[in-house]
Amino acid sequence: MLSPRFLIPMAAVALFLTPARLVTAQSTDAVLTTNTFIRIAERTLPAVVSIEVTVPVSQSSSGQATPESMDEFLRRLLEEPGVPRFRMPDMDRFGYRGTGSGVVISEREGWAYVLTNRHVVGTNDTAQYKVTLDPSAATEPVTVEGDSVEWVGDDSLTDIAVLRFRVPDGLALRVIDFADSDAVAIGEWVLALGNPLELGNSVSQGIISAKNRSLNARNRIDNHLQTTAVINPGNSGGPLVNLDGKIVGINNAIATETGRWAGIGFAIPGNLARDAAEKLIADGRVSRGYLGIAMRDVVDINSSAYDLLLKEGVSIEEVRPSTPAELAGLRRGDVVVAVDERRIRNSQELLESIATRTAGDTIALTVTRHTGGEKQELRLEVALIERPSEQELATASPRETTPRGGNWPRLGPRLQGIGVKLAPATDGPRPGLLIEEVEEGTPAARAGLRPGDILYQVNAFDVQSFAELRRALANVDAGADHVFVFEREGKQQTATVEQPRN
Fold this sequence. Notes:
Elements: E1 7-9, H1 36-44, E2 48-56, H2 57-60, H3 70-79, E3 95-108, E4 111-117, H4 118-121, E5 128-133, E6 142-145, E7 149-155, E8 160-166, E9 189-194, E10 202-213, E11 224-227, E12 239-241, E13 247-255, E14 265-269, H5 270-283, E15 289-290, E16 293-297, E17 314-319, H6 324-328, E18 335-339, E19 342-343, H7 347-355, E20 362-371, E21 374-383, E22 385-386, H8 390-395, E23 418-422, E24 433-438, H9 443-446, E25 454-458, E26 461-462, H10 466-474, E27 482-488, E28 491-497
Antiparallel strand pairs: 1-13, 2-3, 2-5, 3-4, 4-8, 5-6, 7-8, 9-10, 9-12, 10-11, 11-14, 12-13, 13-14, 15-22, 16-17, 17-18, 18-19, 18-20, 20-21, 23-24, 24-25, 25-26, 25-27, 27-28
């Protein structure tokens, strides 16, 4: 998996931002000739547009992005973990400006609909947009701006957005179709189109070098196509097309240490982008299902402690109150292994399985649960609700865990480098064991455990007493690591405490 610090969204670096378009990928056995790429360029470039975005400070300061210097923007982007960071840089003291790419995917009642990246156009519907069509679409470049360009909607989980513009009289508009991106093959020839470095529409060729590539993007459906086609700042939002001239992906990011192309680029799969774009055009929004959990891949927490035959699945780290997950009876420590009988290998697959459904849909979760060391496999029916906005999710208050009372009897000596007490009483069952001390230099300290953490489960055993903790620590093979499930500041977390190796 790539280090997040080197993943740069191509519309957010320096001054460059690009919209993208979708092509259906279908494998082809066509023989390459000197005219192959010429033919594709002639067919597709007229549907590719350059997008310029301007947002006055007076409007942007209250919302989506705070202007900052270019040096500060690049420093944060390159050094801060968890990128991609989808924000446009400040270009002057009075507002910020960015450019990117897009592709025309539909024409309806005199409006042309342009698919691009969310990080190209932002989420500020007060922004001013200028759309320029490739010169090959007419005798000279055609620019549409002002009230003739409108923001339609965006989808944060896919980084997709849609604009529309009034089609000028007499313009023969070109539209690009989609291919089936699920059918695209590793090694297949593709072309990346867009507006790199503000040079105007350009074409580069390469192959699909990998599929289902994760960029470690948080709260994103993160299964990109990887390509060797040259992608630079400004290509974001532009289409990645196959040899039939159909969209297989939307250019989105590159892996780089310099901010320029270094041989590896990434595109949002066309099927995913098309689905989001069609919903935005129809409704102005994308309805997505919501379960209400915090989760973590089992492979990250030592699946042997959960007695799983495969190192796959998703551990539930938190069940949020009054959500479908709580109503269906899911618990922290449950491991989701399938949705509607389809195997789930990691948290990305679970997120996509849930988010591609709509509110009101019912799904069947296959869950492995350990209680008192005994393993059960359950099938739970869950009725999904509408996914809250990203702002609502970010500002949601953690579950209250403030201690009640102060008389907490000490349970015993340090064990595995920690000292524990009974956690305080609550309105419900006793919540677990409070970690009072963590010895420096011990496996527990190296695993990140801290005083104040509340232990709920160790090695798939619920721990409500010192005796239960001792039993849980003994319930692993010699030399196997321990898995601690605990709560910190209202959020559930997991730590793997290593056993000394001979």
